[in-house]
From TrEMBL:
Statement: the UniProt record of this protein carries the keyword Iron: yes
Name of the molecule in the record: Coproporphyrin III ferrochelatase
Residues reported in the UniProt entry to bind Fe-coproporphyrin III: 16, 33, 49-50, 129
Protein's cellular compartments: Cytoplasm
Main location: cytoplasm
Length: 314
C-alpha cells in the first residue's frame, strides 16, 4: 500500500538522468538526441567516458536515488511522516518525468510541487523540466506548483562555501595563491537573446559562495558544452585553464556550483579531462566535494518545497 494519503502533497524530484548500466548508454544517448541514434563514433566516445569513471555508471544513478531518498527523510523530519511524498522524474532516463507524474496520480495525489536538482533557473533547462511536468500533471488533474530557483538559499551557500574552504586548505602553503574557478554546464548561446537569468544566477551563486568563504581570487567559466554545431556559452574550462597557464597561475580549485552531485560532467570532464589538461601546463587542479545528499543541501530543497506549499517561494 502506498504511503501517499489523500491529503499528502506530492514532490516531483527532477534531474537530468543517467543510464543504469553501460548497456543502456545507446538508448540514453538516443533520447538526448530526440530519437536520433548516435553515430558509432559518438556512441563510443560517450561509452569511453563512462568506462573511464571508476565504478562505471552505477554510482551516478545511485547519487540521484540517494538525493531523492534524503529529501524524503528531510521532509518527514520537518513536516511529519506522510505530509509530503517524493517521486523521481528524470529528463532522459526512466523513470521519466511523465512516469513520476503518473505514479503520483496512481497514488491519488491531487496537489504536487516540482523541484529540479539544479539551483539556477534557465528556460532551456529547469523551464523545460517544468513544462513537461505541467503538461503531464494537467492530463491527470494534478495541480502542480514549481520551485524555479534556490540559487541563493543560505544553506546552499554555506554548504558550498565550506567545501571551498576545505578545498583550499588542501593546497597548504599555496593556499593564498590558489584561484577558485567556479563552473556550470554551458547552454546554447542563443539563451542570451531570451533575457534568461541562468548566467546571472550562476554569477550570483559564485559571488555569494566566494564572499562566504573569504575568497577574492576567483573566476567563472563554462564546461561540458554540447556538440551541436551552434555556438555555446563560453569560455570553456579548458580555454580558461590555458589562459590561466599563460598568466602563470599554478594552483586552481574547481568549484562546479552548477552541479549538485558526482556524475559524468564532474567525474570525467573535470577530474579526468580538465585535470590532465591542467597538469600538462603545470597547473595543480583540485576540486571541491560535491553536495550529493548533504544535509544542508537537503535543507535548502526542503525549505523551498515547504515554502512553496505554504504559498511563499524561497
Amino acid at each position: 500500500m502506498s504511503r501517499a494519503e489523500s491529503k499528502a502533497i506530492g514532490v516531483l524530484v527532477m534531474s537530468y538522468g543517467t543510464p543504469e548500466s553501460l548497456d543502456g548508454v545507446e538508448a540514453y544517448y538516443t533520447h538526448i538526441r530526440r530519437g536520433n541514434p548516435p553515430s558509432a563514433q559518438q556512441l563510443e566516445d560517450l561509452t569511453r567516458r563512462y568506462r573511464s569513471i571508476v565504478g562505471g555508471v552505477f554510482p551516478l544513478r545511485e547519487n540521484t536515488n540517494g538525493q531523492a531518498a534524503a529529501l524524503q527523510r528531510t521532509l518527514d523530519e520537518r513536516a511529519g511522516y506522510g505530509a509530503y511524498v517524493c517521486y523521481q522524474g528524470l529528463k532522459h532516463a526512466a523513470p521519466y518525468i511523465e512516469d513520476g507524474v503518473a505514479a503520483m496520480a496512481a497514488d491519488g495525489i491531487e496537489e504536487a510541487i516540482g523541484i529540479v536538482l539544479t539551483p539556477q533557473y534557465s528556460a532551456m533547462s529547469v523551464g523545460g523540466y517544468m513544462k513537461r511536468a505541467q503538461e503531464e500533471a494537467a492530463k491527470h488533474g494534478i495541480t502542480l506548483m514549481d520551485v524555479q530557483e534556490y540559487h541563493l538559499h543560505p544553506e546552499l551557500i554555506d554548504a558550498l562555501s565550506r567545501r571551498v574552504i576545505e578545498g583550499l586548505d588542501r593546497f597548504g602553503e599555496k593556499r593564498s595563491d590558489t584561484l577558485v574557478l567556479f563552473s556550470a554546464h554551458s547552454l546554447p548561446a542563443k539563451v542570451l537573446e531570451m533575457n534568461d537569468p541562468y548566467a546571472d544566477q550562476l554569477l550570483a551563486t559564485s559571488h555569494a559562495v566566494a564572499e562566504a568563504a573569504g575568497v577574492e581570487n576567483w573566476q567563472f567559466t563554462w564546461q561540458s558544452a554540447g556538440q551541436t554545431g551552434q555556438p555555446w556559452l563560453g569560455p570553456d574550462i579548458l580555454e580558461t585553464l590555458g589562459r590561466l597557464s599563460d598568466e602563470g597561475v599554478k594552483s586552481v580549485l574547481a568549484a562546479p556550483v552548477g552541479f549538485v552531485s558526482d556524475h559524468l560532467e564532474v567525474l570525467y570532464d573535470i577530474d579526468i579531462e580538465a585535470r590532465k589538461f591542467a597538469e600538462e601546463r603545470g597547473i595543480r587542479l583540485e576540486r571541491i566535494r560535491m553536495l550529493n545528499d548533504d544535509p544542508q543541501y537537503m535543507a535548502a530543497l526542503a525549505d523551498s518545497v515547504i515554502g512553496m506549499a505554504n504559498g511563499r517561494a524561497n
